[in-house]
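S2.1 Query sequence (Sugar porter family MFS transporter)
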Amino acid sequence: MNKILMWSVTAALAGFLFGFDVVVISGADKKLQALWQSSDAFHGAVVMGMALWGTVIGAIFGGIPTSTFGRKKTLLAIGVLYALSAIGTALSNDPYIFAFFRFMGGLGVGASTIAAPAYISEIAPAKDRGRLVSLYQFNIVLGILVAFLSNYLLSGIGDNDWRWMLGVQAIPASIYTLCVLIIPESPRWLVSKGRINEAKNVVKIVNPDQDSDLLISQMEDDHADAPKENIFMKKYRFPLMLAFLVAFFNQMSGINAFLYYAPRIFGEAGLGEKTALLSSIGIGIVNMVFTLVGVNLIDKVGRKTLMFIGSIGYIISLGLVSMAFYFHWSGLAIPIFLFLFIASHAIGQGTVIWVFISEIFPNHLRASGQAFGSSTHWVLAAVIPSLIPTLFSTIGAGTVFLIFTIAMVFQLLFVIFMMPETKGVSLEKLSKTLTKE
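Output structure tokens follow.
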């Protein structure tokens, strides 16, 4: 188990770089706009937004190298992209070059949401799979927190402090890349390429108390249809629908809109700038604590139970936030409700999404299935936050949060009536159960 944990933690570090990369730009935001005298539109769409579109492209096409070249080589490439992005942005003297390197980092983020969960789910024993895959989400949250802290510590060290903020990511990116060199390839991917002996060696380490020949033959059976299949075939409609709905509801909770605009939302609620920023740091801490709770519970109570708890928490917290805006409740009411919202997200969708999507597709279609679910998530993560300023000024914050609340009622119905429990079931057995012949 120690080796499996070490390999899983190594792959999950891609999530740390993801969280760090997404948030680190916030420390350089205003300084870059002042430095390059950019208009709001250019600064938002090109300087700040290019990484997000890189993420969308990385998510859409990341399944191709993950399937073709393997999970390990893709994870290596992701580390290189992060390192180049960090160094390139830190040395940039032009907004277009800066945007190019931010786009490169975005490609790494998008691809990591496919390769890392797929790799961990394929090396993990069924009984520990949820906990090990959710280490990826924990690392995202940790990366976000460390980026905020890093920006805070590096702020004010000189006129070019933003270069250090962005460049420092090259250190964890290089360490991660070196660590990936020593992990083995996924046995299920090796089987898909006919490299049976190599796969058997890894399986013996992953499942020492089980018959490796039997496990390999089950993997081979699962790959039997590989050359002539894709995720859009009728028999895979159910897992495809599950991946779409989990990713869709994840963003329809308003989570990314909230994380991007936390200070603005607190400002709308009447809090001063200092209190708003302090509340934003509180969000990061609550997110991390409840992600840890989710990671510890996912293999004990299951994915469905965590989603059920999270859905109830979403409905209560978002409903209260909506009412607070409608009835002009003041003071700390909205931060408290939003802390409850973050806790609900962290223990439910935050912990479950990457685990669940990595489990529901058969081995030979896992990377393309992950790419579909991840793309749905990232397209909505790009679209919904971009609409928030306009929606707040037109229909108002109360109505926006009411829409999110209603969406979470539908998520609860999805969890109760449609979502299967995947806890403790082998990937091959899940493949047979969820496929409708």
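Residues 307 and 349 are 6 Å apart (CA to CA). The mean pLDDT is 88.
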